Amino acid sequence: MSTLLQSFEKFVNKEALFTTEDDLLIAVSGGLDSVVLLHLLMSLKYSTAIAHCNFQLRGKDSDQDATFIEGLGKSYHAKVHLQKFDTTTYAENHQVSTQLAARELRYRWFEELLASHKYKYLLTAHHANDQVETMLYNLTKGTGIAGLRGIPLKNNYVRRPLLFANREEIELYAKEHQLEWREDASNQQDKYSRNHLRLNVIPELKEINPGLEQTMLQNSRRFDALEKLLMKEVSSIKGQFFKQKNTTYSLGMEWYDESKGGLSVLTEILKPYGFNFDQCISIGEATNAQAIGKQFYSRKFVLAIDREKISIVPQQSNESFSILISDINQLATVPFADFTLEITDKNESWSKDTKVANLDADLISLPLKIRNWNQGDFFIPLGMKGKKKISDFMIDEKIPVNLKSRVTLFESNDDIIWVAGYRIDDRYKVTPKTKRVLIIKMTDHV
Fold it and tell me: Are 170 and 32 in contact (CB under 8 A)?
């Protein structure tokens, strides 16, 4: 048994990547790495099917790759899945790079194959040199700790059983077994960033450290361990301080201390909402400075600094709305909520939920108007005698800046009768003289 084959079997078993009982799907491009991985799997009698993507990016070469893969499948008596993609059109339609388009297309197809054919794992032929390139590329471009960790050995259904081996070992194995493979000429063009690293930068680094691949693999494991510690802390902080109510998120910031690693935790918490590292630095500074009301924008969300917390809501259209309600039994919908209305006889039991308004029906005239608040709007809040501007009321209620655009008003007789979800107007409250009650219930959109 060859040295690489022995090392491969040992590595697979040590890391518990898969067993001979598992049905495996291997992504085979036709290049050296995937051809060697396929040979290793077949030599050890693993149950393996082949998946090949034709991205139609290299003209006849792409079609010849597919023909080569079909031949491999026949020689190994393995099932072959071939798929042709119009990658260029997909990239244009989705406004992404060709590389990202190819990645999205292939992994979507791989997932479909895994589900429909009951394959347990997808295997890719990434090896130690790929790991070095990825870690250096991420470090050069800017990355979090996951980028420093590089390519994970296991990632959901994906397994990468060649990560322990370097390119020289893989080439030697191919020559020993007289394997044939397809060469992609673009791999030798240093106009691509990763190729430039492979062809120019890494050879220079290996002058300093001939064992660069193994050193970087060790570093990857160190960063992987650190990432696990970080994510454990992230989970703990979120469990204590992160809250969600419908589409509104809030994060209490009592825990935040940059000197104790708070910035890394905050970055991981806010990453799903599109806020980058530089923004998180500014958010942390604004929190420490108690810059209440300061806002930050990602592509889809607005974050605002509030008292001892930050709030995050989806960005909404700034278009104003105004809806007339002429039928009490009508369901009313605004961009942020639904409202149901009914009139009932007075009784002694009323909901104290701020999402429910109980109003004297006989003081109200139809049609009711539902609209955004505007500067200069005022009402008489329940329990008060004098007028109050809506803008001042929102400050008193500590409504975060990025939620103020959602404040919705009900109007009758040119009076604001309810600041929906917060307070009714004192002039329209239920009193001992009230005979009928208008009940309006608010349901926020999820």
Answer: yes
CA 411 to chain centre: 40
Burial 3-20 (b: 16+ CB within 10 A, else e): ebbeebeebbeeeebbee
Alpha helices (H) along 30-95: 32-43, 60-76, 87-94
Distance CA 291, CA 333 (A): 34
**Which phi and psi angles does 440 have, rounded to 5°?**
-115, 125
* Paired tokens of 131: 């790991």
Of 442, 441, 434, 440, give the one whose Cα is nearest residue 345: 434
- Nearest Cα to Cα of residue 357 among 423, 411, 308: 423
Q: What span, in angstroms and rounded, lies between the C-alpha atoms of 382 and 246?
A: 26
- Give the model confidence (pLDDT) of 392-429 as tens digits: 999 888 888 777 888 999 999 899 999 999 999 999 99
β-strand pairing of 415-419 with 408-412: antiparallel
Q: Give the position of tokens 């008596």.
A: 77
Task: Please give the structure tokens belonging to residue 61.
Answer: 């070469």
Q: Locate the DSSP E strands across 85-186.
A: 121-123, 154-155, 158-159
- CA-to-CA distance for 239 and 253, rounded, in angstroms? 13
Task: List, for residues 117-141, the tens digit of each pLDDT value.
Answer: 999 999 999 999 999 999 999 999 8
Alpha-carbon distances of 229 from 133, 145, 196, 226, 308, rounded to whole Å: 25, 11, 33, 5, 26
212-241 per-position pLDDT tens digit: 999 999 999 999 999 999 999 999 999 999
257-285 b/e (C-beta count within 10 Å ≥ 16 → b): eeeeebbbbbbbbbbebebeeebbeebbe
